[in-house]
Amino acid sequence: MAREISLSGGDVSVLKALGLSGGTVAGNVLMERLGGMEAAEIVDAIDSLMAFDYVLCDLDTIKNADDLKRASFNVNTAMLRDLREALAPQKKENRPTRQRRG
């Protein structure tokens, strides 16, 4: 059973920058991908995503931009399906399905 996930705009931006492939992204690369966001906004979003175990990190806490640059991140593979559904809500089960004619 999928659980309902509520994401902020910053959370969505960070998740899209990390990608939902489960691969590892270095913190400095993440900051480059999110060039339009302030470092403090990225730190807050990462902290929020880590608190819910949506994002995993090699450091225990991220407190500032220096920590962010040194860290490596990846999306928790156990949460990928739920996160994909949260990022693309139009693909939920309420959509009518097409039946094949035999």
Feature tags:
about 100 residues; 5 helices; three-stranded antiparallel beta sheet; mainly alpha
Strand order of the largest sheet: 1-3-2
**Main sheet makeup:** 3 strands, antiparallel
Counted by DSSP, the helix tally is 5
Stretches where pLDDT is under 50 for at least 5 consecutive residues are: none
Mean pLDDT across all amino acids: 87
Strand portion: 5-15%
User: Which value, in Å, is the CA radius of gyration?
Assistant: 16 Å
Number of domains: 1
What is this structure's SSE topology?
Elements: H1 9-18, E1 25-26, H2 27-33, H3 39-51, E2 55-57, H4 65-70, E3 72-75, H5 80-87
Walk me through this protein's architecture:
- This protein is mainly alpha-helical and 102 residues long.
- It has one domain (9-80).
- Helix content is 43%, strand content 9%.
- It is built from five helices and three strands; from the N terminus they run αβααβαβα.
- It has helices at residues 9-18, 27-33, 39-51, 65-70, 80-87, and strands at 25-26, 55-57, 72-75.
- The protein has a three-stranded antiparallel β-sheet.
- The longest helix is centred in the middle third of the chain and has 13 residues, at 39-51.
- The chain is elongated and about 60 Å long.
- It starts with 8 loop residues before the first helix and ends in a 15-residue tail after the last helix.
- 17% of the residues are buried.
- The mean pLDDT is 87.
In short:
With 102 residues, this protein is mostly helical.
